[in-house]
Amino acid sequence: MAMPRNLEGLSNPLATPAQLTSSSSSLDGIPTDLETSVRFAGALLTQAAGVLLRLPQDVIAQAIVTFTRFWIGPDGGSLAVHSVKDVSAASIYLTAKLSFHPTSPRSVLNVYTYLLSKEASPLWFVNASVPKDKPRAETYYLSEGSYQAQRLSLLKMETVILRTLGFNTHVVIPHTIALTYLQTMNTASNNLAQRVFEHLNASLLSPQLLYATHQPNALAVAAIYLAAREVGVKLAEEEWWEVFDVDREELGFLVVAMNSMEGFSKSEKEAWADTPIPLAVKDVEAELAKRQKAQDGE
């Protein structure tokens, strides 16, 4: 992933066209639709874990970007080798450790044990029947022996992520940039800013990998453009986005991509309404076997 040298402070390393053409998972025979669904669920899992760990949204967003980058390109991680749940946990742990809000391995593993519990998890892609009553603690209890084993796995996965990313953990989040742009244009109302942040947060889950393919300033501009139309705030009639170094073509693509997130999320939930999304290697293998069996039966 290359980064402009003169803009390192406000830019992110972006995926190259070659990296976007094929992933390590696809080379290992993982269908694109399955890879997209599993990656989407992993980002949602990371978001939920960050909330339960009471991490700030910017730290959670950085963890999701790190999680996403890990799977990109033929040299990235493969779903046939690494479990999404392990990469998600290590991404949260690593990002929090590098921030002003570090969290302990025990806290991280306790949260993931709860979120991945088939009986207790409130996540639709883990537990199809979300419990109405408070689940019993024993359904998601992490024993000392399990903790020690998972702690070693967490630290090992952290090392794998760092090595895969070339130890480049630099992540710039567009939220602050967007707020600065709103203030520059004298349009920083609460309703507009909230809607802008909603689009930026939703884009973290994008199947187009928007945070890995576009710079933060472009994401900020697109979120402002779309949110302003939705809230009914009139912006400058001129092509104001060019002031922030974004051309019309890129803006159009990002607006369409951001606008499609609600439909994409609904379609994923409908597609996996009757079965959990596989988050472990063995579950991915089971899903592939089920698909192969269904194909052979046709």
From TrEMBL:
GO-annotated biological processes:
regulation of transcription by RNA polymerase II
**What segment(s) does the record annotate as region Disordered?**
1-28
Q: Which InterPro entries does this one have?
A: Cyclin-like_sf, Cyclin/Ssn8
Composition bias type Polar residues, residue spans: 18-27
* GO MF entries: cyclin-dependent protein serine/threonine kinase regulator activity
- Spell out the protein name for this chain: Cyclin
